[in-house]
Design brief:
Chain lengths: 420, 370, 258, 263
């Protein structure tokens, strides 16, 4: 996601560079805010980002920082620091890495530059238990005020129950009250504007997605991964909208002139689970066989599966509640299953590569379930193997490639009627 | 002790109980974990039945729930896949740890039980709006249970169930408090058997047996003169006495434990005039599980146990991949050690495989406390 | 048409020559750090057939060292080779289990050489041949005898450690307790079979199962698998050679094309 | 007063006889398939060396993972306590002990009397223990005793080893050898990997000087140097680090004896 990753993954779009620059832009903003004595929030779990941007609160998010460290090949190092503190190797590397970076006796030069220490910690139990435990520990460590945002789970699929939405909404209101103590006054107009921008962003995103369904696809997962930052981190800001407008233009042009990621697209794949942030080139790896990873699951995180029209700027908190509760990373799987069925159909997918992230209690456990349901519906196969997208210490190139090679080989032979 | 022997037998051969329930024509509803209100199931004329793991190694579950999910849940799910839980008419889960939540979809897809329901309880407790949200969830659950059993749950029935369960809770607590004495009249392993039996038994019968335990324990002659260090065990679920027994064999005295198969089950009682209000209040104010917020309440509770039972060392048992306790173990270890209580975090699989290494750790910890 | 298949495995390198669907010769040499196993196995099959390397139009290599065969005209994954090799020997097999030195693969196939679904074991060595090889050493028995010995078992023994290293000490402890070797071996076989069973179930078990790879030589493991699969399985006469056979078959079919 | 300590380890068994507070004899032998027999053998060996007989020994304490299998020991004590005790006997100023044997690895803190105050042990994967070195010695055909030295003379720098599993590391190493990576660099990488795992363990208990390294791996200078480098301190090592556990057991035997037979 960071600029340094761009070199590793072969991207085809111009706008990708721009999207990755927004990362630096945002962190510089956070650092500057800290210098001006604005309280910095560390946020964990999927707390709706629109709130931070509406109230102009500088925020460092758990979901993003370890990826930056991984891109720098530093994740293993920091995870080890957490292990030295007594955390087992079995916890999610997002957390061990973040903990390690925060607990390093001295934040090293790289980290400190981007990583102002927290004044407030906000955590949500969404999507996993660890999302609350890490911040709890850090709040104790930094002696920081701590806010816990309780999110109900969603076992109902697309029809969320009213009382659950209301409960989450109330909790968001309480968050606003809490933030007020630090001088961040709730500004209703700004919240509405933020949700409006977020809605606009989702509309753009959906148009881009439509073009990507074309064969050959004008934009692959490597670009998608890096372009995710505005959608995931900056929804509710103008800059995100600008970037996506340009992205849409570029993708449209490519699609209209028939430009694809590879010359001859033979197989279309989706990547489920986290790609290795320390080796994003892996998303391009199947291209040598004419296989393109056209989508990665991560691009749908943060409520991107929501129909943009379901957002209503007049009711910002309710809209954000819906956006969160419908997220496919919800601890129960109904929405994730629906997402997969839909993507497989709409993108004319030939095969799914799914990775089990070590230490993750959320996505891997569902992979088999999704494999079975998707296969039942569309006969599209899915290969599942272990790969930790954050921790680079145990990455085994040979093992991973053996899986991908074999999988693509079997897809090709199926398509080509087994020529060999 | 005869009463204890009877209870232990039920834990080892739950089929005896299950046959009994079946003979009465009762529906059996499996559940996990403690945030499922048993009383509502009971008041609908059904049997709430807590699910435990078995001693057999996991075979099929690993290919469905990948291995980064706690072994306890994988074990339970494995038993279901193997057809060992066919006696269940339904399953009720609640919103606690990831492992439990993950099992929901898997159960619905792969295990054909008539009912699979998850109660969407809040994870924030001691708060008014969580209370009102949970109240709706409980009402929905009550309706669901009425529909499923075909029996109306009247407030009277519910109140009766609550007082029956409360009696079990208070009796268990009395027995548990016997361990304050030195040497204790009940060992840790015995307590575990007693509570687990009470959890799966008809409460009327359980209450009689626990009363007997209380009587018999008073004039017990075979009290062990085990004056080793007083230890508190807490952490992930322990559903077989092996670990507790190991600590006792190594010379430690398990003076107290805080487990969902022991004290967490009965520590508080359901209080209040209106039964639904009482249940709602109970669930949102017990806060004895690390999945729930705020953690300070739990820490305070542990510290109280440590004081009351004159605990000298704490063993934190983590089942591999059990995040709530893994994190809590690290956090509380730092805090407790600052107050002079040594804490050993013991990570192991649900089946306690590699018991040799565990032995070394436990033995060294006890040697350290002598 | 002649095809040469070379399977450079982690423990053994196998070469096999196929001519018009007839196996002409095969050879197995231990893979070691000197890299001599490939020329050794290839020279061996050539000598047996009297052929020269340049007389063979197509050479397909497979196995973890497949890239080391510089003169191969193509490579194929082990999964494809296992399936093709099996299809060459048996008709209608729907599940192939390939247990080699450090690998275990479960494959679902269409019975005609096409792969439908597969899973490879993760990074732990439990459930593979090396687990047995190490245990054979600890037990001081010959790896080839294990299958036969296990048949004399009269008592259930459970090996709980999955880790090769810890299982070794568990085995040693069992020996101390004077548990008969036959029972320990049976326990080990069961433990491997359980692991393999898990892998197979992760892709779904179908009827007509073949077990191939070096470990299939051990009929103790095979019978444990049959128990778990609740069905008889097919085991080729030379299970270790199936991948090489599959590679050779692919090479032969390709003929002069390419 | 004559006491003995027997340490039945996973790889080697050790015996020490303590007479009037001095090491009177010691023996070391590989642990065979039969620990009971091994225990008898190592005990006989040390008796032969000292010219003593069984009845001269007043008290015997056993330790090590086979500690319950020593039929003639009056008491067994965990190896964690014994290594602390033994290290403290060698170096009274010791506060932190790293004991690394074939299968497990422990970081221990102790007080001035050698009593354990805190410890951690590696978890179930054998990756972080000495056994991996044996596997490599066997594979590379280099004597175990030379591995450490060789690992310090890297040619192009340490080769990263990603696999932690002892068994899989073997095939990774074969791969590197085939790519022409010098054996020294691979050993460097292996020692480095081991050292960093150990370092994490040490950090968990917190290192306070003096640090003693005991157990067989203390003989592996490649690992020891790397640990020292990471910690920035020098470790103390007994002249025979493998017997520290057995010595500790003998010291315990002495202390117990002193308690039960005053005067
Ligand atoms: N005669 C035999 N009896 C039983 N098992 C054997 C025999 N020969 C080899 N094996 C097993 O086969 C394994 C090697 O299988 P192989 O398929 O050649 O592996 P790879 O392809 O990884 O080299 C060995 O680890 C050993 O356990
Ligand atoms: N001479 C030596 N040089 C270097 N390393 C050695 C030497 N002897 C033993 N080791 C290392 O020590 C380990 C065994 O240590 P030891 O303390 O005897 O183990 P245990 O107590 O488990 O039997 C071996 O795995 C090996 O790595
Ligand atoms: S990767 Fe999994 S375990 Fe880690 S933070 Fe995300 S959901 Fe939680
Ligand atoms: S042991 Fe831990 S992870 Fe497993 S069910 Fe219990 S709380 Fe959840
Ligand atoms: S547990 Fe054992 S076999 Fe598995 S990875 Fe670790 S060392 Fe290897």
């Amino acid at each position: 996601m960071a600029e340094e990753v761009t070199s590793r993954a072969a991207t085809v779009l111009q706008t990708t560079v721009e999207a990755s620059r927004s990362v630096r832009w945002y962190y510089e903003k956070v650092t500057a805010a800290k210098k001006n004595n604005k309280p910095v929030v560390w946020a964990f779990g999927l707390v709706p980002r629109e709130i931070w941007h509406a109230l102009d609160i500088p925020v460092v998010t758990l979901e993003h920082f370890p990826l930056l460290l991984a891109a720098k090949q530093l994740s293993g190092k920091y995870s080890q620091v957490a292990e030295e503190r007594g955390f087992t190797r079995d916890i999610c590397a997002y957390h061990s890495c973040f903990l390690g970076a925060a607990l390093s006796d001295q934040l090293d030069a790289y980290t400190e530059k981007r990583f102002p220490s927290p004044d407030i910690i906000v955590a949500s139990n969404f999507p996993c238990n660890q999302e609350v435990k890490t911040p709890q520990y850090l709040a104790e460590h930094y002696k920081c005020p701590f806010f816990y945002l309780d999110a109900p789970i969603n076992p109902w699929g697309e029809e969320i129950k009213k009382h659950a939405v209301e409960y989450y909404e109330t909790n968001l209101e309480r968050l606003l009250v809490f933030l007020e103590k630090f001088g961040y006054r709730p500004d209703w107009a700004a919240l509405q504007e933020s949700v409006r921008l977020s809605q606009h962003l989702l509309r753009l995103w959906n148009k881009i997605v439509d073009y990507r369904k074309k064969a050959p696809t004008p934009m692959g997962a490597a670009d998608g991964y890096i372009c995710l930052y505005p959608l995931f981190q900056l929804p509710g800001t103008g800059i995100a909208v600008e970037i996506y407008e340009r992205l849409l233009n570029e993708v449209r042009q490519r699609a209209e002139s028939g430009l694809g990621v590879v010359d001859e697209e033979r197989v279309r794949l989706i990547w489920a689970g986290l790609p290795p942030a320390y080796n994003l080139g892996l998303l391009n790896y199947p291209e040598r066989y004419g296989a393109v990873v056209v989508q990665s699951e991560l691009e749908w995180i943060g409520g991107a599966i929501l129909d943009p029209e379901a957002l209503n700027a007049k009711k910002p908190l309710e809209s954000l509640a819906r956006k969160t509760l419908l997220d496919f990373v919800n601890p129960t799987y109904s929405n994730r299953i629906n997402l997969w069925k839909r993507l497989t159909r709409e993108f004319k997918i030939d095969g799914i590569i799914a990775v089990n992230k070590r230490g993750c209690r959320n996505l891997p456990a569902g992979n088999r379930l999704i494999k079975d349901t998707v296969y039942q519906e569309s006969r599209v196969p899915m290969i599942i193997f272990d790969l930790d997208g954050v921790d680079n210490r145990e990455y085994d190139d040979a093992q991973v490639k053996a899986n991908i090679d074999t999988f693509v080989e079997s897809l090709l032979s199926k398509k080509g009627g087994r020529k060999q | 002790m005869k009463s204890l022997e009877t209870m232990r037998r039920y834990v080892r051969e739950p089929q005896l109980l299950i046959n009994g329930y079946r003979a009465l024509g009762k529906k059996i509803i499996g559940y996990r974990c403690l945030y499922v209100p048993e009383e509502i199931i009971h008041a609908a004329g059904m049997v709430p039945y807590p699910l435990f793991g078995g001693p057999e190694p996991i075979s099929l579950a690993d290919s469905y729930l990948q291995p980064y999910i706690c072994e306890f849940i994988r074990n339970v799910f494995d038993r279901a896949l193997e057809g060992k839980l066919k006696f269940l008419d339904g399953l009720v889960l609640c919103n606690t740890c990831d492992a439990v939540r993950k099992m929901y979809d898997h159960w619905r897809t792969y295990i054909k039980t008539h009912l699979c329901y998850i109660i969407n309880n809040p994870q924030e407790t001691y708060s008014n709006h969580a209370y009102s949200y949970y109240y709706i969830e409980l009402q929905n659950f009550r309706l669901e249970m009425e529909n499923f059993s075909g029996q109306k749950i009247t407030d009277e029935n519910l109140a009766r169930s609550i007082s029956l369960y409360n009696e079990t809770r208070s009796l268990l607590k009395k027995a548990y408090l016997l361990r304050k004495q030195d040497p204790a009249a009940l060992s840790g392993a015995e307590t575990l058997d007693m509570v687990m039996a009470a959890m799966i038994m008809p409460k009327e019968e359980a209450n009689t047996l626990i009363r007997d335990v209380l009587k018999e324990a008073g004039n017990r002659v075979d009290r062990r003169q085990n004056s080793g260090p007083r230890i508190l065990i807490t952490g992930s679920i322990i559903d077989q006495p092996a670990l507790i027994r190991l600590v006792e064999e190594m010379g430690g005295m398990v003076a107290a434990d805080d487990l969902c198969t022991t004290s967490r089950y009965f520590w508080q009682e359901v209080k209040g005039d209106n039964p639904m209000d009482a249940l709602c209040l109970y669930a949102t104010q017990r806060c004895l599980c690390p999945c729930m917020h705020p953690a300070e309440k739990r820490l305070a509770h542990l510290q109280e146990l440590i004081r009351e039972f004159a605990v000298e060392g704490v063993i934190y048992f983590n089942i591999k991949y059990c995040d709530p306790f893994i994190f809590e173990g690290v956090m509380f270890k730092e805090v407790l050690e600052k107050t002079g209580i040594p804490v050993m975090v013991l990570e192991a699989g649900h089946d306690l495989s590699g018991i040799g290494q565990l032995k070394t750790r436990v033995q060294a910890f006890i040697e350290m406390l002598w | 048409m002649i095809g040469l298949g070379i399977d450079v495995g982690s423990l053994a390198t196998k070469a096999l020559i196929l001519k018009d669907d007839q196996i002409l010769a095969w050879s197995v040499k231990p893979t070691d750090i000197s890299r001599k196993s490939i020329p050794a196995a290839v020279d061996d099959v050539l000598k047996r057939t009297g052929l020269r390397l340049n007389e063979i139009e197509n050479i397909i290599s497979t196995g973890i060292g497949k890239k080391e065969v510089s003169y191969a005209t193509g490579t194929l994954s082990e999964v494809s080779c296992a399936v093709r090799g099996t299809a060459f020997l048996f008709t209608g097999v729907r599940t192939v289990v390939d247990i080699g030195g450090q690998n275990c693969r479960a494959i679902r196939c269409d019975g005609d050489g096409g792969v439908i679904d597969f899973a490879l074991n993760d990074k732990c060595a439990a459930g593979t041949g090396i687990f047995l090889t190490s245990m054979a050493k600890a037990l001081e028995v010959d790896i080839g005898e294990m299958g036969q010995l296990s048949r004399q078992s009269t008592m259930e023994v459970n090996i709980t450690s999955m880790c090769v290293v810890f299982a070794e000490s568990e085995v040693v402890t069992l020996i101390h307790r004077s548990v008969p070797k036959a029972d320990i071996i049976r326990g080990l076989h069961k433990s491997i079979a359980m692991r393999v069973n898990g892998l197979v179930h992760s892709i779904g078990l179908e009827s007509r199962v073949a077990v191939v790879g070096g470990v299939a030589k051990n009929d103790g493991v095979v019978s444990c698998l049959e128990e778990l699969f609740k069905q008889k399985v097919f085991v080729p006469g030379e299970p270790q050679l199936v991948c090489a056979l599959g590679a050779a078959a692919a090479a032969m079919k390709r003929g002069g094309a390419n | 007063m004559i006491t003995a300590g027997i340490d039945i380890g996973s790889l080697s068994s050790k015996a020490v006889i303590l007479k009037d507070g001095q090491i009177f004899g010691r023996a070391l032998t590989p642990t065979g398939a039969d620990s009971v027999q091994t225990a008898g053998r190592v005990m006989q060996e040390v008796l032969d060396k000292t010219g003593l007989s069984f009845k001269d020994i007043n008290f015997i304490v056993s330790t090590g993972y086979g500690r319950v299998l020593v039929p003639f020991a009056q008491r067994n004590v965990s190896e964690i306590s014994c290594h602390a005790k033994g290290s403290s006997w060698f170096f009274p100023s010791v506060r932190t002990i790293l004991d690394m044997g074939g299968q497990d690895c422990k970081a221990i803190r102790c007080d001035a009397t050698g009593k354990v105050t805190n410890f951690v042990m590696n978890d179930k994967c054998a990756a972080g223990a000495g056994r991996s070195m044996e596997v490599m010695a066997d594979l590379l055909q280099i004597p175990l005793a030379d591995l450490g030295r060789e690992s310090l003379n890297t040619v192009r720098g340490e080769q990263d080893i990603s696999t932690t599993c002892v068994v899989f590391a073997r095939s990774e190493v074969i791969g590197y050898l085939h790519q022409g990576v010098p054996a020294n660099d691979i050993l460097g990488g292996l020692c480095e990997a081991l050292a960093s795992r150990v370092y994490a363990l040490l950090k968990r208990v917190g290192v306070e000087e003096d640090l003693v390294i005991s157990g067989g791996i203390a003989k592996n200078i490649g690992v020891v140097r790397r640990i020292e480098q990471k910690l920035g301190i020098n470790a103390k090592i007994a002249y025979e680090p493998q017997i520290v556990g057995a010595l500790g057991a003998a010291v315990f035997a002495r202390e117990i004896l002193a308690k039960i037979m005053p005067g």
